[in-house]
Amino acid sequence: MNAPHQTEPRDPSDRPARLTVGVVGAGRVGPALARALRQAGHRPVAVSGVSDASRRRAARMLPDVPLVSPAQVMERAELVLLTVPDDALPGLVEGLAETGAVRPGQLLVHTSGRYGASVLDPARRAGALPLALHPAMTFTGTEVDVQRLGGCSFGVTAPEELRLAAEALVIEMGGEPEWIAEDSRPLYHAALALGANHLVTLVAQSMELLRTAGVEHPDRMLGPLLGAALDNALRSGDAALTGPVARGDAGTVAAHVSELRKHAPAAVAGYLAMARTTADRALAHGLLKPELAADLLDVLADGAEPTADPEGGER
Predict the structure, then answer these.
(1) In whole angstroms, what separates CA 162 from the centre of its chain?
(2) 3-state SS assignment for residue 119
(3) Cα 32 from Cα 142, distance rounded (Å)
């Protein structure tokens, strides 16, 4: 009896391309998404970039794709990724529509977290099919970004008749679609910025302070701690709060503020703001005892403005 024939998985490049793909704005996001779409069987055909860094990135991430003008990208591609900074997006869309670069039936995708599909209305009136697909991921501009798209959530906003198409594209890129209402996009984006962008700032500040304190490898020290804190927070929310603020250790917090004023005065305002927010949340969730909260909040209030001593110094 013959063994059953084993079919070898087909290389994505062997599959017939379903859509030609163009990228307007070769920042960190666009080339990565184009590569992910190519792995799904689509065919990148054109990319535009203004800066030297963008052009180098496009050449590295999409080496066989020609660098052309935005108008030529629009002319050559059935699916166009508009991956430009948020503030530049409305003007770009209006310009493409006014110059007749938009073709009826063309899929026009932007990756801005701030905007929904309505920012593409000028192109939609010209016949384009508007999709807002925002990957909730931080990008490096390197090949690792394509791998990180696996399991990445995308904030999806599109007209109802295009919902299935939008979700299908996200799934093909390895992501998981999460539907965001048009009027909720700014709040959605603010939440991501609060969690991810501010986290980078906090970690960078923490590493600088540890170096100042004499720690040779602050990244090694912080890695396990921050990994555990993030995991606990995702699992348990505010119940994961620990540390001197949540415990109501006013003396410890006062010492922190004093040391920061000496060694990193620029970090004081951020420390106080986060400490006050942490105290409010810990108090609301019963983690911070009310009798300890008063002294802690006094320390945080006093820490905001150093008072002068009679001899003209600060105390």
Answers:
(1) 24
(2) helix
(3) 8
